[in-house]
Each structure stands twice: as C-alpha cells, then as structure tokens.
C-alpha cells in the first residue's frame, strides 16, 4: 500500500512540475491551474480517507459499546512513529456463585415451577455488564435464601430459551412467580437493590381487614381492590387467594371474616362463602366473582375485570389492552367529540 502511494505521489509531482513549467510559458496558465486543482483535491481526500480507520463511517454503532468494552485501550499515533499499544486484559475476579443455580432447557421448567419466587438472569459470557453484575447477583442469592431462588442462563448456549422470552439485551433478569414470568427486574444492579426489591415482591400479598375503620380507609385510599369474605383468615382458601394475588402487581388484595366489613364492599349479608368482589373507582365499579375458588380462576377473573370497560388507547395504556387475558378487543378510531357520543354504546 505504501509503495503504491509513493508511486502515485511521484507521478503526481512530476505531472505538476511539468504542468507548472508549461504554465509559466503559457498565457493561459491560470486556466490550467484551475483544471489541475481537482487532482490535488482528490489526493487530499484519499489521504484523509486512510488517515483514521476508526472514522465514524467505519464504526459499527450497533455493537460499538460491546467493542469498546471488549478489550483494552488503543493509542493511535499521529504519523510520528508511535506504535499501537494494547493493554492486556485483566483476569476476571473469582465469584462465589454457590447459591446461583445454572439453568438449561433441561432443568429450567422444573426450577421455576418448584420455587414460588425465582429470579432468572439471561447473560452472555462476553457481556461486560453481566460480569459486573455477577458478584452482586451472587451475594443477593445468598442473602435471599429461603425467600427466593436465583439462577442464571447462558443465552449464547440456550438459544431456544432466549428466543422464547424474547431476550434483546444482556443482562436481562426476570421474576417468575409459581412458574410464570411476571416481571422484568429494572432496579439497581447491586446486592442491596436486588434484595430490597425481591423481599418486597415476596412479602405477604394479602392483608387482613378486621375493623370497619380499616375498611373505610382502604375504600377511600385504594383506586381498586379485591376483597374476599372467608370463613377463616388461614387455610386453603386464604392460600389460594394469596397465590392469585402474587400474580398481580397493580392492585391490592384483602380478606375478612366480618359480614359487616364485607357489606361495605357490597357483599350481601348471608352470601355463601367464600365470596369475592373487585371494586374500582370507575363507572362499572363492581365485579362479582362466580367460579371455583382457585388461584388460576381468581387470577383470570381479576385480570379480565381490573381494567375499565373502555380504555383510551395511548402509549402508556397499551399494555393494559394487549397484555390482558381478554384477547378479543374492539378498537374505535374517532375524534374526541365522536368518542364521547359512542361511549355509552361501547360500555353496553
């Protein structure tokens, strides 16, 4: 490359000298200069083109951060004879991951199914952020023993699982509750951040109401609530209610044995127990449960009834529509004035 450039420069200089000599003897010398100017410009462009191999147009911006993190620094000379220098990669610290389970397609389903709460990290071995998370994640796994189980999956090896859960970047950490993926962890990538978040998710998810004053406070403060009237605040029915409540993040579950309290929540006196209602501060404020008192059926009822009958289709509210268990949706495209006219019909 260097020899070809030298030859090109030699011929260019020779040509310019010859042209200059002719120009001095020509009355149209300035015109000739203008005609030859483009050659110098082209040569200048070629030199600039080869000057910086890391120019923006050659960077793979999609993976640039990964490339930056992948190795040491490069120090580029400015034509003064400096050589490229590459810092040696430092060995990764040894992390005690004795409490972090390693999952594959063979044991994944069993692991998330047998643990009421499980955090699962999808990672890639080359990912710098994953390497930084590793000691924090391992420490959190140890502190959360008895509360939640933590595991990791090498997404470069378990491509089917990564595709199933639509992994777009690393690390991605999911919370599984009773075998179902419920949340993406988006908190601090520290031991304390993970522990605090996980303990909150694993805390008792149903609350007892034993006085009328408590009931009135709940009705006043909560935008939507689920209340069950049971024979006992412990036992199989309470356990089913608690299991269903862990599948919902955006509303509170309560239970009571008092018919007077239940009446405040519009559960009739003398109704057969267990009885359950969902109350909302919306026009269609009451939904009564009528089904088998099991986690799955309760969860399906709550998911279908917790959203308004008519929702304004916005970016923020899109998840309420497309992540709902009700799969048949009717979407009205209209102006604001026209929408108001059609709302009564839509609610019917």
From TrEMBL:
Signal sequence: where? 1-23
One of this protein's GO BP terms? protein folding
Biased amino acid composition, Basic and acidic residues: 73-89
Q: Where is this region: Disordered?
A: 64-89
Q: Which is a Gene Ontology cellular component entry for this protein?
A: endoplasmic reticulum lumen
The species this protein was found in = Brassica carinata (Ethiopian mustard)
Could you tell me where this protein is found in the cell? Answer: Endoplasmic reticulum lumen
Tell me the protein's name.
protein disulfide-isomerase
The record's InterPro entries line, in alphabetical order, gives:
Thioredoxin-like_sf (IPR036249), Thioredoxin_CS (IPR017937), Thioredoxin_domain (IPR013766)
The superkingdom of the source organism is Eukaryota
| Any GO molecular function | protein disulfide isomerase activity
Report the EC code(s) recorded for this entry. Answer: 5.3.4.1
Cited Pfam families: Thioredoxin (PF00085), Thioredoxin_6 (PF13848)
Protein keywords:
Disulfide bond, Endoplasmic reticulum, Isomerase, Redox-active center, Repeat, Signal
């Amino acid at each position: 490359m260097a020899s070809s450039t030298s030859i090109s420069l030699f011929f260019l200089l020779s040509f310019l000298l010859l042209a200059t000599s002719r120009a001095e003897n020509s009355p149209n010398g300035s015109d000739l200069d203008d005609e030859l100017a483009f050659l110098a410009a082209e040569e200048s462009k070629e030199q600039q083109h080869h000057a910086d191999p890391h120019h923006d147009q050659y960077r793979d911006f999609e993976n640039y951060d990964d490339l930056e993190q992948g190795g040491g620094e490069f120090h580029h000379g400015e034509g003064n004879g400096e050589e490229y220098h590459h810092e040696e990669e430092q060995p990764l610290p040894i992390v005690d991951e004795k409490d972090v389970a390693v999952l594959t397609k063979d044991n994944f389903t069993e692991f998330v199914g047998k643990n009421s709460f499980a955090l699962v990290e999808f990672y890639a071995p080359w990912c710098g952020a994953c390497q930084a998370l590793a000691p924090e994640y391992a420490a959190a796994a140890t502190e959360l023993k008895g509360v939640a189980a933590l595991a990791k999956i090498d997404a470069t090896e378990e491509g089917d699982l990564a595709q199933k859960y639509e992994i777009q970047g690393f690390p991605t950490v999911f919370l599984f509750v009773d075998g179902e993926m419920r949340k993406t962890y988006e908190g601090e990538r520290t031991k304390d951040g993970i522990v605090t978040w996980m303990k909150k998710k694993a805390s008792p998810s149903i609350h007892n109401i034993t006085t009328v004053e408590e009931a009135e406070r709940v009705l006043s403060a909560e935008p939507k609530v689920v209340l069950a009237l049971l024979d006992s605040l412990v036992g199989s029915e309470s356990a089913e209610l608690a299991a269903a409540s862990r599948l919902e993040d955006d509303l509170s579950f309560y239970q009571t044995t008092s018919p007077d309290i239940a009446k405040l929540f519009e559960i009739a006196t003398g109704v057969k127990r267990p009885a359950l209602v969902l109350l909302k501060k919306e026009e269609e404020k009451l939904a009564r449960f009528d089904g088998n008192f099991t986690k799955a059926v309760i969860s399906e009822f709550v998911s279908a009834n917790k959203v308004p009958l008519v929702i304004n289709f916005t970016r923020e509210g899109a998840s309420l529509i497309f992540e709902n268990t009700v799969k048949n949706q009717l979407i009205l495209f209209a102006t604001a004035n026209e929408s108001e006219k059609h709302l009564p019909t839509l609610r019917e």
